[in-house]
Amino acid sequence: MATTNPVQFIQQTRAEIAKIAWPTRREVILTTVMVFLLAMLAATFFFLVDLVIRTGLTTLLESF
């Protein structure tokens, strides 16, 4: 296993970090908004599905 001294390690790390394509502020804001919107949409969907199932089961069990 090849050993790397700390100076080489830091140089290699800086070189790799320089290759990263960082997102722009606009991209970060848009993706954050999309995540929140989709989370709210999923929460609403599962709330409605739960409501329908609960209502159906309550109606079914009350008929006995």
Low-confidence stretches: none
Report the radius of gyration as a whole number of Å: 26 Å
**Strand residue percentage:** under 5%
- Structural class by SSE content: mainly alpha
Can you tell me the overall shape? elongated
Mean pLDDT: 94
| Total of helices | 2
Helix content, binned percent: over 70%
Largest sheet: none
Terminal residue distance: 73 Å
Task: Write a brief caption for the model.
With 64 residues, the chain is mostly helical. 80% of the residues lie in helices and 0% in strands.
Which characteristics define this entry?
single chain, 64 residues, mainly alpha, 80% helix, elongated
Description:
It is built from 2 helices and no strands. Helix content is 80%, strand content 0%. The chain has helices at 6-18, 25-62. The model has no long low-confidence stretch (mean pLDDT 94). The protein has 64 residues and is mainly α. The protein is elongated.
